[in-house]
């Protein structure tokens, strides 16, 4: 298989897919559910998807026209920030971008019947340049028997036990529009999770802008991009159903036994619907009905 072009080389050519969003960046850290992840985001209505991986993945023929495979060390610490910042600088200002990882699946209110283009058109009309996304960590209840962290057909997640805390500003003050969300297995097993990886929120949908920079902590250098909502009312939020935590715990010998027993009293079967996430308060429609 011919190696995919390097991300930076491809961006320097100013190719046609960069000229119009929304675009999705999928960082492929391994080969788990790559095709399924790409197809999910294409089905949401992203006009093009960039698959960033150290090795060129196999892409089904029916997706090839809307997926570009690019070489990028997605396993390196902080690689998401470098990729997002490079694409931000290459696309026209105001282009809507999304970033996530393989085995992560974006949901938003009514995502089964409304495209991401419709979603972002409304969000733009509300004068919002980013959208808060809450990570919902999925796990396999049969991991102890099968040794597999990932099983989409049997996925579970924590249905309760989430909370938010105000994020202090540099001067020590608090703004109720800037919060960190906690819960799920990251909270139940926080002794195994680095503090920087415990918050569940990230502004994964955002508009490109000159000088915009994403940090390794999933926060932008423009504070408004990190906020929950505008000052005058609640805005749309979304969710990412993610097997990434379960995969990471299973891959680490020191936490493998934890990954085998992530099911707890609050566990519920994941139905793969936006309605379930809305009903549990893990995302909200704001003024969009």
Account of the protein in words:
The protein has 289 residues and is of the alpha/beta class. It has 2 domains: 1-102, no CATH class; 103-289, no CATH class. It has helices at residues 7-12, 34-44, 79-90, 116-125, 143-146, 184-188, 244-251, 256-259, 274-279; strands at 23-27, 48-53, 67-71, 96-101, 104-107, 130-137, 156-158, 163-168, 174-182, 201-207, 238-242, 267-269. The chain has an 8-stranded mixed sheet with strand order 3-2-1-4-10-6-11-5. Strands 7-12 form a two-stranded antiparallel sheet. β1, α2 and β2 form a beta-alpha-beta unit. The mean pLDDT is 95.
Keywords:
289 residues; alpha/beta; eight-stranded mixed β-sheet; 12 strands
Secondary structure layout:
Layout: H1 7-12, E1 23-27, H2 34-44, E2 48-53, E3 67-71, H3 79-90, E4 96-101, E5 104-107, H4 116-125, E6 130-137, H5 143-146, E7 156-158, E8 163-168, E9 174-182, H6 184-188, E10 201-207, E11 238-242, H7 244-251, H8 256-259, E12 267-269, H9 274-279
Parallel strand pairs: 1-2, 1-4, 2-3, 6-11
Antiparallel strand pairs: 4-10, 5-11, 6-10, 7-12, 8-9
Number of domains: 2
Main β-sheet, spatial strand arrangement: 3-2-1-4-10-6-11-5
Order of helices and strands: HEHEEHEEHEHEEEHEEHHEH
Radius of gyration equals: 18 Å
Give the helix tally: 9
> Runs with pLDDT <50, length 5+?
none
Helicity, in percent? 10-25%
Straight-line N-to-C gap: 46 Å
* Protein structure class: alpha/beta
């Amino acid at each position: 298989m011919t190696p995919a072009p390097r991300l930076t080389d491809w961006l320097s050519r100013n190719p046609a897919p960069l000229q119009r969003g929304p675009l999705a960046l999928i960082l492929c850290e391994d080969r788990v559910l790559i095709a399924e992840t790409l197809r999910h985001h294409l089905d949401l209505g992203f006009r093009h998807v960039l698959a960033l991986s150290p090795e060129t993945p196999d892409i089904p023929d029916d997706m090839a026209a809307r997926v570009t495979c690019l070489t990028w060390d997605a396993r390196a610490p902080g690689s998401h920030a470098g990729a997002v910042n490079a694409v931000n600088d290459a696309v026209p200002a105001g282009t809507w971008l999304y970033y996530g990882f393989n085995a992560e699946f974006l949901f938003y209110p009514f995502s089964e019947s409304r495209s991401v283009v419709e979603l972002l058109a409304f969000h733009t009309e509300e004068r919002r340049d980013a959208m808060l996304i809450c990570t919902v960590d999925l796990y396999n209840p049969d991991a102890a028997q099968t040794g597999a962290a990932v099983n989409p057909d049997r996925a579970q997640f924590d249905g309760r036990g989430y909370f938010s805390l105000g994020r202090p500003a540099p001067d020590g003050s608090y703004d109720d529009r800037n919060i960190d969300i906690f819960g799920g297995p990251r909270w139940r097993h926080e002794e195994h999770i680095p503090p920087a990886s415990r918050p569940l929120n990230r502004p994964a949908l955002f508009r490109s802008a000159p000088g915009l920079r994403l940090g390794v902590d999933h926060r932008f250098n423009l504070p408004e991009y990190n906020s929950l909502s505008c000052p005058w009312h609640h805005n749309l939020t979304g969710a990412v159903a993610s097997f990434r935590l379960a995969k990471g715990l299973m891959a680490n010998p020191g936490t493998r036994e934890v990954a085998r027993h992530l099911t707890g009293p609050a566990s519920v079967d994941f139905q793969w619907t936006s309605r379930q996430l809305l009903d549990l308060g893990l995302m909200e429609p704001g003024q969009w009905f």
